[in-house]
User: Fold this.
Amino acid sequence: MNNNLHYMSGFGNEFATESLDGALPVGQNSPQQAPYGLYPEQITGSPFTAPRATNKRSWFYRIRPSVVQPPFTMMKKTNLRSTPFDEQQASPNQLRWDPIEIPTAETDLIDGLLTIAGNGDTHGWSGLGVHLYACNTSMAKSRRYFYNADGEMLFVLQQGGLTFRTEMGIIQAVPNEIVVIPRGIKFAVDVEGPSRGYICENYGQPFTIPDRGPIGANGMANERDFLTPVAAYEDEDGEFELVAKFAGKMWRTDMAYSPLNVVAWHGNYAPYKYDLTRFNVINTVSYDHPDPSIFTVLTSPSSPEGTANIDFALFSPRWMVAEHTFRPPYFHRNLMSEFMGMISGIYDGKEGEGFSPGGCSLHNCMSGHGPDATTFKRASTVKLQPHYLDSGLAFMFESRYIMCPTKAAMDNKALQKNYNDVWKDLPKQFTGKK
Assistant:
């Protein structure tokens, strides 16, 4: 692969990049004869008539067009599940899983996927799938590639660095970074040793930076910190496998060339990465704990306005400065369902054992949750003074949809059978007196 590891900065910008001088036509998207004998090919990530602000498309100039491949056949055995999520009844009970084990046998990203939960409709562009990955082998070894026609994929790296070789260039990422691969973009993932993390598969509108409202022009995630790769291509012939997720199923075909053969491209539909340490936390300086919406990095909007298909929220190191108030998250019940994961350290709402890096929890619509007994006792008596919270990095996929767990997730030995015991030692404190 012609490899240029520089990145272009700025969320949602119109980019133009070429890995051979003059490969990108100027002034005409689809010339009668493209430079170097390349084929023009457009990929759209939105309806054609979407407003300019949400219209997504890019032009590729590639060695072979995507139509030059044999038909797909369905793969029968995979651990990836999709809509309809109907193999397991959704439950109001709180659910939590220990970190899944990284396999010892050779396992690439595709074979190392485990679907935890999801809901919505891939045919109707709504909802999400939540997956874990655990792998130890690069897709380069098997010459394997993948694309997802059902939704874009947000990767949250927890252990091990990943190299994403995409149609539009190379993205190298490490834990504390996220990578978003848009719907339909072909890619392969190479690993740097044993790797583990989380994937949010977004069936709805593409992720975007949320409006800041009264916060103003600065804070939260800033546009300049989202990085998009420059053009790089593979001009290789041989035996290759292309796997596709389409209409909830996995399909495969054999190819005689690498599908990552885009020499130049321009547009605003492209993969990107973001360093979570760049998130500019907005926090309380008076009283009470702000709603998690203040920690939103990316959102997939839906109707009515303000009701997210998915919010990706981040609980990162920050100053806790407040008066006369309980510092960790309060006990709460939400309309929105919450899937939480732990990247590193200890979450301030779960200081007791059980919520480890690589683990996850699911609290569905109106299911009560909050700090465990250990955390509540400590936070109720601790001296209230400015405190820098730097013990952990956690995140949340929050959705308007009730998330239905999969049978594989409920049968997995990582499921904690006694999760709700973390609250059993909360005593009755009511005295009837002030």
